[in-house]
Write a structure and sequence with these properties.
- By secondary structure, this protein is of the alpha/beta class.
- The chain has two domains: 214 residues, Isopropylmalate Dehydrogenase (3-Layer(aba) Sandwich), CATH 3.40.718.10; 137 residues, Isopropylmalate Dehydrogenase, CATH 3.40.718.10.
- Helix content is 43%, strand content 18%.
- It has twelve helices and 14 strands.
- Helix 6 packs across helix 7.
- The chain binds 3-isopropylmalic acid and manganese (II) ion.
- Manganese (II) ion (MN) binds next to helix 9.
Length: 365
């Protein structure tokens, strides 16, 4: 399986190094071969090729089975126009890969409940899947841009019935594999796109009578996420709402550094941690690689058809946390054993290989 690796900017390369460990461990353990081809994206690509998504990088992505990205964004490019910024590379890549369904699972590990800004009893039960529509809405709709002399600017939120239908199907299907509840989040008291969203999601729900559907306004959802996160199972929402709510949900689980994501639906899936490039801590070896490693687990599940190994990897992450190992962001007030980015990667790899060993021994008998 060929994977294009796009480390990108800031802490992207550091966390990717720890993610790649897992592929190497699988390569040496099984007769499988994950072939990793590294290319520049974002600010790193602007520096070497003058574009945030060079043709050569895009070509490599389109010729692989999956794409794995670290993070993009660097303050030195803040002054550039929208189309030239590092972020433009990621948005173009998402559009080219055509994955419209962005899965952002946010669950609070019991070992980390004290790192949550919420009290333990509230944080503990949090286990939500934010399903974010990734190719429409304000991020991509036309018209957009600045008016004459930059006296005004405009963006457009547009959704077609078809775009809503396809993401809604993914939402109900995901809910079927979880606790069978979809909360569709919109702003239907103000926006026409949301009124259409509500209508279409309701009509798609008829194909899934076993799944409970509720509708909620986005402002209320932001509130319920901090007052009672365990009431949510799947949150199905449009692009910008999903961007905002997924950072909120991530913080509730203890740290934004913990979350992985998968973007599916376009043929070539894209995997990336939910966190950004965090330029303030880049290069210090203190970033949390668990979001990147959780994204590897999602790749094993959604692209490599290795569901058992995906579970093993997620269990390995939990084992390491249960044993008290913490990167700085999840060290809490009474740090136990604070690890570097690399130590954390090594610990998870070790725990993972241990599980593979046991699986192998079992099958050998
Ligand atoms: C995310 C990020 C991106 C987004 C940025 C870097 C363009 O915030 O993946 O959540 O807004 O989608
Ligand atoms: Mn975001």
């Amino acid at each position: 399986m060929r994977i294009t690796l796009l480390p990108g900017d800031g802490i992207g390369p550091e966390v990717c190094r720890e993610a790649v460990r897992i592929f190497h461990a699988l390569n040496s353990f099984y007769n499988c071969k994950f072939e990793i081809i590294e290319k520049p994206v974002g600010g790193a690509a602007i520096r070497v090729a003058g574009s945030p998504l060079p043709e050569n990088t895009l070509e490599a992505c389109l010729q692989s089975e999956a794409v794995f990205l670290g993070a993009v964004g660097a303050p030195e490019f803040d002054h550039l126009d929208r189309g030239q910024k590092p972020e433009a590379g990621l948005l173009r890549l998402r559009a080219e890969l055509r994955g419209f369904a962005n899965l952002r699972p946010a669950a609070c590990f019991p070992a980390l409940a004290d790192c949550s800004p919420l009290r333990r009893s509230r944080a503990e039960g949090a286990d939500v899947l934010i399903l974010r529509e990734l190719l429409g809405g304000l991020y991509f709709s036309e018209p957009r841009g600045f008016g004459e002399n930059q006296e005004y600017a405009c963006n457009t939120m547009r959704y077609s019935v078809e775009e809503i239908e396809r993401i809604a199907h993914v939402g109900f299907q995901q809910a079927r594999m979880r606790r069978k509840k979809v909360t569709s989040v919109d702003k239907a008291n103000v926006l026409e796109t949301s009124q259409l969203w509500r209508r279409v999601v309701t009509s798609v729900s008829r194909f899934y009578p076993d799944v409970k559907l509720e509708h909620m306004y986005v402002d209320a959802c932001a509130m319920h996420l901090v007052t009672n996160p365990s009431r949510f199972d799947v949150i199905l929402t449009e692009n910008l709402f999903g961007d905002i709510l997924s950072d909120e949900a991530a913080a509730i689980t203890g740290s934004l550094g913990m979350l992985g994501s998968a973007t599916i639906g376009g043929g070539i899936n894209l995997y990336e941690p939910v966190h950004g490039s965090a330029p303030d801590i880049a290069g210090k070896g203190i970033a949390n690689p668990l979001g990147a490693i959780a994204s590897v687990a999602m790749l094993l599940r959604h692209s490599a058809q290795m569901p058992h190994e995906a579970n093993d990897l997620e269990d390995a992450i939990e084992n390491v946390l249960d044993a008290g190992h913490r990167t700085a962001d999840i060290a809490g007030e009474h740090p136990q054993h604070v690890t570097s980015t690399r130590e954390m990667g090594e610990l998870v790899e070790c725990a993972f290989v241990d599980r593979l060993d046991r699986r192998f021994a079992y099958h050998a008998v």
